[in-house]
């Protein structure tokens, strides 16, 4: 082997080592908190606070029983599921319909509307908007159920609309024209031609919407303060930290955190293929 070939092989080997070392480090930093939380949920409070091994000395299933029976985590989990599913439904429906109109129809003010939507992607008002939004939902009677909070978390979703509109533009317009000749209306074209063709990206935005709704804390905390029965799981877990017995309930907190963590992991595992398909297809079509 010539010196240049040995040098290239050495550089390639070092590059591979550094690459996999980086990937391994990222996996450790990502997975360790998850594993620690899951295993910590089976420990006693004393074992958690005093440290020790990562595995529980004695597996305590009572932490979960206490969380569900005494702290009503079953109700809060159901609230989170309802909120996440409603947010997914509203997000997919509004984003797909809006993207279809923007990509396929011409109307007065279209350019101004799309420009405004693009600008809104770079503007964040944060918590400043919570009070007026709460007042708006209260005025229309949507603060006593999950629908109002789901609508709020759905938001304007400019990024979703522009992602989906890129997929809609990739669908040949000749399909629309052929369907129109056959007597299909706008909604039928949208539902039977466009939606099946853009399912990959709809799966991606549905997954993002589910994650956002499931993990949301600040907005859910504010909008459920007047109605504690609507508290979500993330709010219930966070509130344990500020309870009178917070120092003695670390084992319950980790159990609650695990209850909040497991469903989103399951959703990601089940939707992983759809997620990758949507992103890779978007790299070609978008």
Automatic annotation (TrEMBL):
The chain crosses the membrane at residues 20-39, 81-103, 115-134, 146-168, 189-210, 250-271. SUPFAM superfamilies: MetI-like (SSF161098). It is a multi-pass membrane protein. It is found in: Cell membrane. InterPro entries: MetI-like (IPR000515), MetI-like_sf (IPR035906). Keywords: Cell membrane, Membrane, Transmembrane, Transmembrane helix, Transport. GO terms for biological process: transmembrane transport. CDD domains: TM_PBP2. Its main location: membrane. One of its GO terms (cellular component) is plasma membrane. Residues 77-271 form the ABC transmembrane type-1 domain. Belongs to the binding-protein-dependent transport system permease family. This is ABC transporter permease subunit. The lineage of its organism: Bacteria, Bacillati, Bacillota, Clostridia, Eubacteriales.
């Amino acid at each position: 082997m010539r010196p240049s070939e040995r040098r290239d092989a050495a550089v390639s080997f070092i590059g591979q080592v550094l690459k996999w070392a980086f990937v391994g480090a990222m996996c450790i930093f990502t997975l360790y908190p998850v594993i620690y939380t899951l295993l910590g949920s089976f420990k006693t409070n004393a074992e958690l606070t005093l440290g020790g091994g990562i595995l529980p000395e004695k597996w305590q299933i009572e932490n979960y029983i206490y969380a569900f029976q005494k702290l009503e985590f079953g109700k809060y989990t159901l609230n989170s599921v309802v909120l996440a599913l409603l947010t997914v439904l509203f997000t997919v429906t509004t984003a797909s319909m809006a993207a279809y109109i923007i990509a396929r129809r011409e109307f007065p003010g279209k350019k101004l509307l799309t420009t405004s939507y693009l600008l809104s992607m770079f503007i964040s008002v944060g918590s400043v908007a919570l009070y007026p939004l709460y007042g708006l939902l209260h005025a229309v009677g949507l603060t006593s159920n999950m629908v109002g909070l789901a609508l709020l978390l759905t938001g304007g979703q400019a990024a979703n609309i522009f992602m989906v509109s890129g997929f809609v533009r990739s669908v040949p317009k000749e399909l629309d024209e052929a369907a129109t000749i056959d007597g299909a209306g706008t909604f039928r074209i949208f539902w039977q031609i466009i939606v099946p063709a853009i399912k990959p990206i709809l799966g991606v935005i549905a997954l993002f919407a589910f994650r956002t709704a499931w993990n949301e804390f600040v907005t859910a905390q504010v909008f459920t303060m007047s109605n504690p029965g609507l508290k979500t799981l993330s709010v219930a877990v966070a509130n344990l930290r500020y309870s009178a017995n917070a120092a003695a309930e670390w084992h319950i907190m980790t159990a609650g955190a695990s209850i909040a963590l497991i469903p989103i992991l399951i959703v990601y595992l089940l939707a992983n293929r759809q997620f990758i398909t949507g992103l890779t297809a978007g790299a070609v079509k978008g």
